[in-house]
Each structure stands twice: as structure tokens, then as C-alpha cells.
Design goal:
- The structure holds two protein chains of two kinds.
- Chain A is mostly beta strands.
- In chain A, 11% of the residues lie in helices and 39% in strands.
- In chain A, strand 1 and strand 2 form a beta hairpin.
- The relative contact order of chain A is 0.30.
- In chain B, strand 7 and strand 8 form a beta hairpin.
- The termini of chain B are far apart.
- The chains are: A mainly beta, B alpha/beta.
């Protein structure tokens, strides 16, 4: 298991691969966009992106805005 | 018609989507305003709540064009990354670029704004910068590749109207060909009418509609005011004068001479 910071909260994941980690975290079917350690990771790059212990993952979705 | 980059629009009223009492009220307000563009944002999504998914379905059903913002970004890096993420999720190269410099007034950090605009324009984004009425900053934003500017009327959510009339008029006069959209700070429909009368091309309203007692009625009122302001601009308003000028003809006045 690996500890990463997901949207500011510590979570544990089994998979180091971003695409699989997102499924594990419950985002499987959601329209989201991601950044790892402040860098945007496009949806197409998620399968090849490996997470490390302590990484900061942002998972964002559409929201109301002005 | 209003042309923003390659897009032609009929409506001069853009609506923000935040702070409505309920999603259905937002949807009705967008229809009442006859808005063709709404602003949207990105926030952290909870896998359990999936709030973003429900919101996105609602917006897609409205069939309007979205203008994603970078609200809440305080640095160039955050704003540029947020723009990248927004393009992926919303499928548009439009970005309402906000780099906030100061939390009490939510005043733009114009130095960071110009930097971020330069980066994003070079990457092919169609940037709508949230800026002040400063002419020099406006020049730099245009040099960076922006083809639309969004000067503030007053601080976001303040409802104060056009705070610096002199500065805004100077901006309009200096850039007669650049689409200028008043973004932020308007409180009542007369503020919006005034913006159009002064020659601004459109306004973006959020709080003034969303937080009104009846947001749908207020959205309709803004749409009517904007229509009036646009017609007045086209009709050529008179110049204000310091002294009276009689409107009734003086020749033939009774009891004189």
C-alpha cells in the first residue's frame, strides 16, 4: 500500500498507476481532470503515469463559477 | 452581433453559475437572461458526493457555451495548470483568466495575469483576462495575444457598479475595436445599462442575479436593461451640459416683449 495526498487528504492506494489508482479511489466513471504534484496529467497519460509515496494528487471536476 | 475570437454571439449578457439557491433556479435564470455563455469553474471532486458530475449534466442540458475560469488562482503556475485542466474537462480553448493578487478586493495581480496570458495565448488558448481598467496593462494583454478584455466594474460581488467611470471610459475610447466585457461588481440592471450605453460590448453578472431575492426575475431585468443600453448606444446619447437648454421653442413665447 502507498500513501498519497488526494485533494488534500491522505489516502492509501494499492496501485501506483494513476489510472488504476483513480478507479480504486472511486473516480472510475466520473468526468475529472488530474494533476500530480502541481503538474497537469492529461487523461490519455494516466495509464502510464506512476505515483510515488507522498505524491500530491488533485482530482478536479466541473463546478459552479463566476 | 458580438464577435469573441471566432465565435459570434447575439446575447450581451453572460451569467456566472455560482451562489444560486438551487440548480433549478440557475437553469431558469440562464433561460430568462437568454444567456448564450455561462462561466464555470473547477473544484476538488469527492468520489462519494460526485457534486461536479451533477452540475456538469445540468450545464450540458442548457445547451450554452461555457467559459471556464481560473478563479481562486493566486499564481501564474496555478492559473496555467488550471487552464490546462479546464480545457480537457470542458472541451474548449476559452479561458477566463484570473490571477488574484489581493484577497480583500479580489483585485487581479496584473503582472501575473500578463505572464499567464502570454503563456496560454502561445499555447493556442483564447484568453479572456479579468483585469482592471489600467490602459498599460490592457496594452500588455493585447501584446500577449488577448483579443478580448474583461475589465472589472468594481470588486467581485460588491454590487457597486462602475466604480471608476473615468478610467473605464478612457479604456473604451483607447481601444475602440477590442471587445470589452465588464466583469464583476455590478449590482442592479441600471449598472449594466450604463455599461452598454458607454459602449462596452457585454457584461458578466453572477452575484447580482444569483443572490437576488428572485434570481429569475432579476436575470430577466438584466437582459432588458442590456437591451436598452445597447439600443441607446446605437441611438447616440446627448452630451451632458452644466446649464439648462429649453426644450420648448422660444419663438412665439406668450407674454414676452
Amino acid at each position: 500500500m502507498m500513501k498519497i495526498l488526494v485533494n488534500g487528504a491522505w489516502r492509501e492506494t494499492r496501485s501506483a498507476e494513476l489510472a488504476r489508482a483513480l478507479e480504486e479511489l472511486g473516480y472510475g466513471t466520473s468526468v475529472v481532470t488530474t494533476a500530480v504534484n502541481g503538474e497537469f496529467v492529461a487523461a490519455g497519460e494516466r495509464p502510464g503515469t506512476l505515483l510515488s509515496e507522498g505524491d500530491r494528487l488533485e482530482v478536479l471536476a466541473p463546478m459552479q463559477g463566476g | 452581433m458580438l464577435q469573441l475570437y471566432q465565435t459570434q454571439l447575439t446575447s450581451r449578457l453572460m451569467l456566472g453559475t455560482a451562489r444560486y439557491p438551487a440548480p433549478a433556479v440557475l437553469a431558469d435564470a440562464v433561460r430568462a437572461a437568454r444567456a448564450e455563455v455561462v462561466t464555470v469553474s473547477l473544484r476538488r471532486e469527492s468520489a462519494g458526493e460526485r457534486a461536479g458530475q451533477a452540475f456538469w449534466s445540468l450545464i450540458r442540458e442548457l445547451g450554452v457555451r461555457v467559459l471556464p475560469n481560473t478563479a481562486g488562482c493566486h499564481s501564474v503556475k496555478e492559473a496555467v495548470t488550471t487552464a490546462h485542466m479546464a480545457r480537457e474537462v470542458f472541451g474548449t480553448s476559452w479561458i477566463k483568466l484570473e490571477v488574484i493578487g489581493e484577497d480583500d478586493t479580489l483585485q487581479p495581480d496584473v503582472f501575473g495575469l500578463v505572464d499567464a496570458a502570454r503563456t496560454l495565448c502561445a499555447e493556442g488558448y483564447e484568453v479572456f483576462p479579468y483585469t482592471t481598467e489600467d490602459l498599460v496593462v490592457a496594452e500588455r494583454l493585447l501584446a500577449a495575444g488577448c483579443r478580448v478584455l474583461m475589465p472589472w466594474g468594481a470588486p467581485i460581488g460588491s454590487g457597486r457598479g462602475l466604480n471608476n467611470l473615468f478610467g473605464l471610459k478612457a479604456l473604451r475610447a483607447h481601444f475602440p475595436e477590442v471587445p470589452l466585457i465588464i466583469d464583476a461588481g455590478l449590482g442592479v440592471p441600471s449598472h449594466a445599462a450604463q455599461a452598454l450605453e458607454l459602449g462596452f460590448d457585454a457584461v458578466l453578472i453572477n452575484t447580482a442575479v444569483a443572490q437576488a431575492r428572485d434570481p429569475v426575475q432579476m436575470a430577466r431585468a438584466f437582459a432588458q436593461a442590456i437591451e436598452a443600453g445597447l439600443a441607446a448606444r446605437a441611438a447616440g446619447p446627448i452630451e451632458p451640459r452644466d446649464l439648462a437648454v429649453p426644450s420648448s421653442p422660444l419663438i412665439g413665447t406668450a407674454f414676452r416683449g
